[in-house]
Amino acid sequence: MAETTARMPMRIAHLYPDLLNLYGDRGNVLALVRRLRLRGFPVEVVQVGAGDPFDPAAFDLAFLGGGQDYEQAILMDDLMRHKAGAIREGVDAGLVFLCICGGFQLMGRSYRTWEGRELRFLGALDLWTVGGRKRLIGNTAYRSGVLAEAGADPWIAGFENHSGRTYLGPGVTPLAEVVRGSGNNGEDGTEGAVHRNVFCTYSHGSVLPKNPAFADLLLSRAVARRYPDAGPLAPLDDAFEAKAREAVFRRLRVERD
Amino acid sequence: MPSRARIRTRTAVALGAAVLRFLRLVGKGATTLPGKAALAVDPGLLQALAADVPVACVTGTNGKTTTTRMLCAILRGRGRTVVTNRSGANLATGLATTLIESRKRLPDPKAVVVLEVDEAAFRRVAGPLAPRAAVVTNLFRDQLDRYGELATTLRFLSEGLDACGATLVANADDSLAASLGRGREDRALYFGFEPGAMLPPDAVRATEATHCLSCGAAYVYAARTYGHLGDFACPSCGWRRPAPSVTLRGILAESPTGSRAVLACGDEALEAHVPVPGRYNLYNALAAVSAAVALGEPFAEAVRLLPDTDVGFGRMELIQADDRRIRLVLVKNPAGFDQAVDFLTSADDVGGAVFALNDGIADGTDVSWIWDADLERLAARDRVPVRVGASGTRAADMALRLSYAGVPGDRIETDPDAHALVKRMLAACPPGSCLYVLPTYTAMLALRARLAAEFGLAGFWE
User: Which residues in A have their CB inside 8 Å of a CB on B?
Assistant: First the structure.
């Protein structure tokens, strides 16, 4: 494995890093890079900003974070006119995406502001968002069926801060069920969305560093696409990760199965 | 016969004063409750108390407390009777408490009130306080769980400025703070670094405020200082850094006790001693000197009196702990964290470092901002302290962040009890060295109270 990987780095596209970079988004890219490097994969992170071309076939992973309303408004034109087609192409081709908060919403069909204005989004995933007045903020704990199915630790510890309420259509699966927190909309108990290799969540910031099983699910999909014979990812020492997770679950008084 | 409004004010002040006396009697800081009680009786209290005295407000994300203290030192040195919210209680309730406590000094013809004001509170207190000068130090992303987006903070500040006639004393190098001067050119006084004293644009990593507030195009920087601060210009609509009147022309020397720099105003250029280290404190010095000028004090006097500043209270505060030292560096957001790490990695007396991360309301309940700070530099500069502590209510998150930053796992000591960890690590520091402690706000308050009892520091309201 080491010989095949030594030739070509795993390539991560960080979409709009100077606009979609709300608290902690950077940590997710750090986690992907670190967990690949520790396993001997060279990694290259490419910042794909407004005006830059995006060729989904040139990447193994793409990350779309969240932004403040002002920054998100700036990139909408570039996103819809110059990247929407490529992103949808990437989704259909099985490119691994991580989309968080604003990025999660952007992958959906539309966003209706609470004043009633309808914004058209990427339409890559069967989901839509409605703006709310009250922000949903706080520490969260989720149990992910997708992780359980993959034979991994299904528990995700996170933090959410969003006013949008996202609703899932039949074309996507929830990433997890909400155990603590509000999740997609505070109503139906779902959190995040999964479609092919696209993973969306409202858990922003340090979701990947603190949830190594989730990070490894993304990485194993990306590595398997690039190197079908690579086999499972080597285990890592996640002692610090485990303690950070434990602290959140303990704080939220979550009893895990 | 006194009017009904005056009777209400008197009743409110009497009540606030009684609450204050009682709480101090039982040994409490009492920095907000007296004001809260009094404001409940008379919502117009701030206006009534501040009516006949000049007021200056200091707001912005970082540097409020230090700038306020610098401005107070200058005004005291000029013979003024200074009333200030020394405790740092900067919401309406804290401001009211300060004015009630100092009510007997307010009629003094030499009296001047200098208040640090929370960014969101400024909107509501600016009208009643009618400040002559309002300083906006800078705007960084800070506690999104509490303040919401930067655009919201900007709106709050703008509303406050509309409600008063204050001279706006704003950071020209900060595109966000400087934007408040647009349409207020006749009452704006800017401060900033001269481009020759800045760093090359690619020497600074900045992720905030990258795009023009007016037209959305990406700013171009000719030079930078830190974060998004620098000589910015929008290539599309032409909005650019306004020319500052009070400038930093060059840095002469930086040391653990402070910096020497050349400050300029008009055709005067003077050497200034800023008695607190760190590059961001040079901005605070510029802000304080500019505010003094806005209040009518001579520039040269303001610069001369800067060294009298009594800094401390967790902001670069140096505590002598027998034959070792503790340096408390308050950290609240990624921009401040980056600056604190810069300071730590350039110091040559580091015996150890403790990072104390709490997630209380005043700290921000969301701790993910630690991932936006460039802690990787700790390891990259090969200046990792021998031992690094992770503490606070989110000690485990901090430990994980440090491990990501490249600090070897066996050198990270985790203990949620910051005081116990500091004492343990202090004992392990070589004699003569300094333990650097970087706490968030509530972690700093709790830790400082314990250290104050042990090493004889003043109470936070004194």
Answer: 17-19, 21-27, 30-31, 34, 50, 68-71, 73-74, 135, 137-139, 159, 161, 204-206, 209-210, 237, 239-241, 243-244, 246-247
